[in-house]
Amino acid sequence: MIRQVTAGVDGSTESLAAAHWAAREALRRGASLRLVHAWTWHPRPSASVPADASEGDWAERTLDQTVMSVRAAHPGLRIVDQLVSGSTVAALLTVAEQSELLVLGSRGLSGVAGFLVGSVSQRVVARSPRPVVLVRAGESAADEHLPAPDGVSPDEIPEIPYRNVVLGLDVRHPCDELIEFAFEAAHRYGSALRVIHAFSVPSADGADVRAITDIGPELLAAQERAVVATLRPWAEKYPGVPVTETVSEGRAASTLVRASSGAALVVVGRRTRDGHFGTHIGPVTHAALHHVGCPVAVVPHA
Fold first, then answer.
1. Do 58 and 110 belong to one domain?
2. pTM
3. Does 173 share its domain with 296?
4. Positive or negative, the Cα torsion across 92, 93, 95, 96?
5. Average pLDDT of the chain?
6. 86 shares a domain with 211
7. Can you tell me the distance from the alpha carbon of 189 to that of 146, in angstroms, rounded to the nearest whole number?
């Protein structure tokens, strides 16, 4: 089976950034890249379609422009382009099944860009059988690396060390798929993995338990031990990946968003339910998709 990374494109600046990120990821994985543009015929074409072009022609032109941009930047990469007419959600879910990774453009607080507007973005991320990475407009190769010293040319950027990979971990529901994805990413980057775990202190009748029993330090120590134990098999499997664990009391979503500053990639999970692909992504993942500035990988798991 041919290894493949897929990017959904629509001509927006967000999807162009996603296509270039997917190209770099395909090279890191030793995989090919598939660029997919899905379009649907409308009785009244969108205002973005020129008067002298049909929707089909404009869709083909949009895909061709992205392909040319990516090929110019990565001439040695094998690229396959695919134009699909029909449901955008169905098309993206189908290509995701055939790929190691699906990459899409994201506007963050404004939702996911272009053909992924409103509920479409939620359905793609929430139902994809494979990991999905969302990339913001303007994301470049330089953003994946530590700041370059003055005088460094663009050709030298790949030689600069990568920024950290950040993993949001819930020790109550640890899963191999999520942890392995984060370790693999850090391994490919040659970077460190920073693991973030936040927990809430139980309360009794609305009161802070620590104020009554002073068990805060014990709870923290227990959570730290749980994180170390969860990561131990993976740290042994990837001995070349430096790992740091940050365990704190507080809201997991806000803690993870703060920790994402300066990261190359943030990795979060999405639980599938009842043996089928769920329709909810969870509050932590939702916060990461809307507030984290770097690319965010959403990994489905049982």
1. yes
2. 0.88
3. yes
4. positive
5. 85
6. no
7. 12
135/231 same-domain check: no
* Domain that residue 287 falls in: 157-301
- CATH code of the domain containing 228: 3.40.50.620
100 plus 188 within the same structural domain: no
What is the per-residue pLDDT across 12-60, written as a single tens digit (0 to 9) for each? 899 999 999 999 999 999 999 999 998 775 555 555 555 555 566 768 8
Can you say whether the dihedral through the CA atoms of 120, 125, 131, 134 is positive or negative? positive
Q: Are 164 and 292 members of one domain?
A: yes
Residue 250: both structure tokens together: 């507080």
Dist CA 31 CA 77 (whole Å): 9
Read off the pLDDT of residues 112-140 as tens digits, 9 standing for 90 and up: 544 443 456 677 888 999 999 999 999 99
Closest residue by Cα to residue 188 from 31, 18, 1: 31
Note the pLDDT of residue 48.
58
Cα dist from 262 to 144, 163, 191, 257, 299, whole Å:
9, 7, 13, 11, 21
